Amino acid sequence: MVGMSKMFKMVLLSLMAISMVVVMAGCGAGSAKESKQVIINTNADEEAVAAMEAALKAAGYEGQYQLQSMGTSELGGKLMAEGDKIEADLVTMSSYFLDSSQSQYKMYKDLAFETGAMDSYPSYYTPILANTGSIFVNTEVLKQKGLQAPQSIKDLTKPEYKDLVSIPNVFDSSTAWLLIQAIISAYGPEEGKIVLRDLIANAGQHIEKSGSGPIKKVEAGEVAAGFGLRHQAVRAHEKGAPIDYIDPIEGNYSLTESIAVINKNSEVTDLAMKMAEAIIKDARKDLITNYPVALYKGESTDAVNKPAKPMKFDQPLTVELLKEHQQFFKDAK
């Protein structure tokens, strides 16, 4: 009986050992499976993320990726600090951050598909959307305050607009960079600093962290005018809000957000490239609805969504230039 008991214990221990090996192998397989997921980092807002995820689902990639949303400053900081050691396999990001991180690290893989973009872009990225700046006003507040509608950014520096203007802060929002590009291009650094100083003074407590902050304040009637994203003002106007959009004399400047694949030379890199193609081919129909700027051949937008004075800054947009313009903003205070 004692021998039988020992034998039983040995068999039981053997079975337990085999079970542990099987469980560990299963866990290992699960980890391997998880490790093959594409990690997507994006600074896009909710509408853009929804469009991209719908495209990935339609292409059969559901469950094969993890999407992590971050602010532009956070993701930009990671790109510039970590380079190709970043966890992400695929990123959508403000194009100037992609340019600057590529210049420093050579971290992106050339796109392996034809994009069909209208304009020329570097071989390693292509835009998913573009945002354009403009002035917008609350027509009811203008009437109440006896104000003439502004035709330029400089008009917003007039004394009658004191505490009635809202603008974004360039340290928090890239939308504000569109404002600064317009001011510097039109007036140069010396007069431009005076224009910006007077604009900041008129804005007072209405300098917003979010690029969407000014349109919200204008819609709410807290201020008469603001500078921000043109398509938001168009949308508010079409919904019947007392909002008008004005293409300023200084011009409409735009920023693109683009998609790029981190060059990690792995199976995941190849899968990330396929996902990038799916997003460009299939998400644009939704993206152009929310961000109505035509970027690819065959795309078009309504006349109302075409800015009257499209402009491009005369220097390449880089993180370094952004820092210069942030200092310009700081010095104007």
TrEMBL record:
Keywords: Signal. The keyword Coiled coil does not apply. The keyword Signal applies. GO terms for biological process: thiamine transport. It comes from the Bacteria. PROSITE patterns: PROKAR_LIPOPROTEIN. It holds the Pfam family SBP_bac_6. Transmembrane segments: none annotated. GO terms for cellular component: outer membrane-bounded periplasmic space. This is ABC transporter, periplasmic binding protein.
